[in-house]
């Protein structure tokens, strides 16, 4: 059981629209009690869930847990100048109610552009239809706008054909994320394996932290109701299917913290690690994963900072790509922090373009294409009023005003196509549809930077 009734009020608790699904509570009385709660309770003491007894008095959580205590429970969320509230007299799932209210607000926003008091008053008819279709006798139904639009039009008018007035099959079967009857002139599916590398490297070259965050993204343009099976070089799958030798030979990866789109059959995956699913139409994330593994820096950067007599400071930056020569990193940006009071910049680099960004206190070295196994140099000279002759004495004391500014880590941005740092591979992508059409699967791999930083000496 979820909700006995739903109502929407303004910020004072005055009802704008309501729907009593079960007829087991006096709705007017319940709405008045909600308005009283808003008026009586200070903002910092308000709770998104509260309970009242049969007399309308607030109940403590201990009283609610006692056997035989009646009353009502309220769950509400605020959106702009509105409250969306559900009330129940049953032992209901509060998390489910709150999720329903948030998703209902998203549906309204999708239909009306904005969700506020005026848009509610201008769309009573369609809102009543949506309230009836998204909840049945207190139980939530589909809250997918794409599905709802197949039988509730933008203007809130139902189609005249009685057959079309029936809810689509997607509301009543297990595949709520995909409507039936989808047709494409060309059946294709695009699969991108995107990995982002989070890395923190100490000044002496020691990797302090490395983590790979990956996602399998899909764009599906397939007709009908296709069944897809995706095979990866997953270590646990190899072991489950008796191919432990392949796992030991280093041809597999051990994925952690895997999360799937709702279309994936989790029972099948847990049984034999097969990723089987009926995809939504269009773009979606099939799965995400994480690997905590030691990774050497794909792009290594060394920095030597030298303050000089005469109020000058010089940077010598050396960068090296530590991946195979056949791969290319695109749109590389090496972001070097500099003291906030530098001036008169001049640069010399063996490749790319160098720009000083005074608003960010940084120098950005851009290399459009960085081939594997290459090494490049860049020198930067600045005037630095905060460096005096005493800062560069024989004692080596360099405690000038700007020292801490150049101690911030160097950040690197990049994107390497056709490459995965984890070694994950798509072994197969099978597409099965009862009409027997041929479909074209396209697979692409991309590795990019996440939070990628290298500390300077």
Side by side, the strands of the main sheet go 12-14-10-9-24-22-17-20-19
**In whole angstroms, how far apart are the ends?**
62 Å
Number of helices: 11
Assign the CATH architecture of the largest domain.
Answer: 2-Layer Sandwich
Largest sheet: 9 strands, mixed
Q: Report the count of strand segments.
A: 24
Residue-averaged pLDDT, rounded? Answer: 85
| Large-scale geometry | globular
Determine the oligomeric state from the structure.
single chain
Q: Give the C-level CATH assignment of the largest domain.
A: Alpha Beta
| Radius of gyration from CA coordinates | 30 Å
Low-confidence segments, given as residue ranges, are: 156-165, 389-405
The percent range for strand residues is: 35-45%
Describe the protein in words.
InterPro entries: Adaptor_comp_med_subunit, AP2_Mu_C_sf, Clathrin_mu, Clathrin_mu_CS, Longin-like_dom_sf, MHD. One of its GO terms (cellular component) is endomembrane system. The chain is of the alpha+beta class and 457 residues long. The chain folds into three domains: 5-172, Beta-Lactamase (2-Layer Sandwich), CATH 3.30.450; 188-295 and 421-454, Mu homology domain, subdomain B (Immunoglobulin-like, Sandwich); 299-417, Mu homology domain, subdomain B (Immunoglobulin-like), CATH 2.60.40.1170. The chain contains eleven helices and 24 strands. A hairpin with a 3-residue loop joins strand 15 (299-308) and strand 16. The radius of gyration is 30 Å and the shape is globular. It starts with a strand and ends with a strand.
């Amino acid at each position: 059981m979820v909700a006995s009734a739903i109502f929407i009020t303004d910020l004072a608790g005055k009802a704008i629209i309501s729907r009593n699904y079960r007829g087991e509570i006096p709705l007017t009385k319940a709405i008045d009690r909600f308005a009283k709660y808003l008026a009586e309770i200070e903002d910092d003491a308000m709770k998104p869930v509260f309970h009242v007894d049969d007399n309308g008095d607030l109940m403590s959580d201990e009283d609610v847990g006692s056997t035989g205590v009646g009353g009502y429970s309220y769950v509400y969320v605020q959106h702009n100048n509105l409250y969306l509230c559900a009330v129940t007299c049953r032992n209901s799932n509060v998390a489910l109610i709150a999720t329903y209210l948030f998703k209902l607000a998203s549906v309204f926003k999708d239909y009306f552009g904005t969700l506020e008091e005026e848009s509610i008053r201008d769309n009573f008819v369609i809102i009543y239809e949506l309230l009836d279709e998204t909840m049945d006798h207190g139980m939530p139904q589909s809250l997918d706008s794409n599905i709802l639009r197949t039988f509730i039009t933008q203007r809130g008018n139902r189609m005249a054909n009685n057959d079309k007035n029936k809810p689509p099959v997607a509301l009543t079967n297990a595949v709520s994320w995909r409507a039936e009857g989808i047709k494409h002139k060309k059946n294709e599916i695009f699969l991108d394996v995107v990995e982002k590398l989070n890395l923190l490297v100490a000044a002496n070259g020691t990797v302090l932290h490395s983590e790979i965050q990956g996602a399998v993204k899909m764009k599906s343009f397939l007709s009908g109701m296709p069944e897809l099976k995706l095979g990866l070089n997953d270590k646990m799958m190899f072991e489950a299917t008796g191919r432990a030798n392949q796992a030991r030979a280093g041809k597999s990866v051990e994925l952690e913290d895997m999360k799937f789109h709702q279309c994936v059959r989790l029972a099948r995956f847990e049984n034999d690690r097969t990723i089987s699913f009926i995809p939504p139409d269009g773009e979606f994330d099939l799965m995400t994963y994480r690997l905590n593994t030691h990774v050497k820096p794909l792009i290594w950067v060394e920095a030597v900072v030298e303050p000089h007599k005469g109020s000058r400071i010089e940077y010598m930056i050396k960068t090296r790509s530590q991946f195979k020569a056949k791969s290319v990193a695109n749109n590389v940006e090496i972001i070097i922090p500099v003291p906030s009071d530098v001036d008169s910049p001049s640069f010399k680099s063996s490749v790319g373009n160098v720009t000083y960004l005074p608003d960010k206190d940084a120098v950005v070295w851009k290399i459009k294409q960085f081939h594997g196994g290459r090494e490049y140099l860049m020198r930067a000279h600045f005037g630095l009023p905060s460096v005096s002759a005493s800062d560069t004495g024989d004692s080596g004391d360099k405690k000038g005003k700007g020292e801490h500014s150049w101690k911030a880590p160097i950040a690197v941005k990049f994107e390497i196509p056709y490459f995965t740092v984890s070694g994950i591979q798509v072994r197969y992508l099978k597409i099965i549809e009862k009409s027997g059409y041929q479909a074209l699967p396209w697979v692409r791999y991309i590795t990019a930077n996440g939070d990628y930083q290298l500390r300077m000496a």
